Every structure is written in C-alpha cells, then in structure tokens.
Please model this.
Amino acid sequence: MIRVAVQPAAIDVAGELDLHDAGGHGATASFVGRVRGEGELTELFLEHHPVLTAAGLGELAHRAADRWSLAALTLIHRVGAMAPGETIVLVLASSPHRAEALAAVEFLIDRLKTDVMLWKRERFADGREQWVEPRAGDHGRAERWD
Model:
C-alpha cells in the first residue's frame, strides 16, 4: 500500500502510524521533519504546484517501493503556513526487514529536497521575509542514490 498526500492540514503522526502499521509489517522506519525555529523564525510558508508536487511525491514513493520491495509506504508533505515545531513531512516505510525500510526513508528525504516542486519562504519576528535556497549538500546527498 502506497499513500501519498500533499496537505495544508496538520499531520497526525500517531494516527498516521496506526493507519500505516495496520498490516503487521516486520519493520517500519520513520522520519518526522519539523519546522526549525532558528533566528526568530515565526512562520515557514511552503508554496507548491498542486499537480506537479503531488506527482513528484508519487513518483518518488513508487521508485522507493519498487527499489526496496516495501510492504507499505506513507509520504505526507504539508504546504501553506506553518509555525516552528509543526510537522512539515512524514515518511513511513515498512518491509519485512529493517535495512530496506531505513534505506527507503533516507532515499525519500534526500530526493524530495531536490526532486519535488516545493518552495520555502521564511518570515521572521522583525518582519523580514526570505526565500530558502537549496543547500549545497542537498544535491550531493540526492546524487548518491543514482
């Protein structure tokens, strides 16, 4: 079972884990990404292209499921306005053994930073706003999966 969602609503991590793990898989690996609150950040806004963002996440999910023969995969990414501490992304991957689940989660996090159409804008307490540029290491981490 592959579930992919792009949503403005908060991610219910516990509820998603319960739903995902209903199959009794041998191993489930997870990644919960949260908005950092560095430098008096008050809001992170994620802009996206509704069709292309969902398609990009879906393509990555299917690549991971095929590559590691996953029994289940959940990939949820938030868009819109978020405050520091809120969950921005959730990845759950299940397989009969831990190595495949762990590798799939790492692959998905590394690749979605470079392969999916998402743009981040930060707002700070002093009123400043800035778009977040990709980090130099993001492409290097993504390329190691080729």
About this structure: DSSP finds four helices and eight strands in the chain. Residues 50-68 form the longest helix (19 residues).
